[in-house]
Specification:
The structure is a single chain. The chain is of the alpha/beta class. Helix content is about 35%, strand content about 20%. A 7-stranded parallel beta sheet has the order 3-2-1-6-4-7-5. Helix 1 packs parallel to helix 5. The protein starts with a strand and ends in a 5-residue tail after the last helix.
């Protein structure tokens, strides 16, 4: 299982996701360009020392990401029909999240093998991308029996 971030806007969210990934032993792909200067300093603030323990791969763009990765693309999006509790995950899934400001563009939606949304109370639009990543990753790892002991 992997986490992929499509053109993230906020360094703090990426740092938090790197910390999450380090704790759960899941690699992270960052699809550039990012909406912030990508530096160790900007990520350390949120990821603390944990971020250094994450496996991180940066990709120059969407095409480079697609060429470098295998596995089913599972896009978390508010536009999805499939609710997280109804989704079925596999060990080689790539959990893909769009940017904080614009989400994922249509061509990313079109490339996804599965689109999933986290059900929220009526009147609420979306969660912070790092929070959504944690919720979806925990469910996917629970289903596949790959949560750390």
């Amino acid at each position: 299982m992997r986490i992929a971030l499509f053109q993230p806007d906020i360094a703090g969210n990426v740092g938090t996701i790197l910390r999450l990934a380090a704790c759960f032993g899941v690699p992270v792909d960052v699809i550039e360009p990012c909406g912030f200067p990508f530096s160790d300093r900007s990520l350390k603030r949120a990821g603390m020392d944990y971020a250094a323990g994450a496996e991180l791969r940066r990709h120059a763009d969407w095409d480079a990401f697609r060429a470098a990765t295998n596995g089913r693309l599972v896009l978390l999006t508010t536009r999805a029909e499939t609710r997280l509790p109804d989704a079925h995950f596999a060990e080689d899934d790539i959990l893909l999240l769009g940017s904080e400001s614009t989400g994922a563009p249509d061509f990313v939606h079109d490339a996804a093998d599965l689109t999933v949304r986290i059900p929220l109370r009526h009147g609420f639009r979306s969660l912070n991308v790092a929070v959504a990543t944690g919720i979806a990753l925990a469910e996917a790892m629970r289903q596949t029996g790959s949560l750390p002991e």
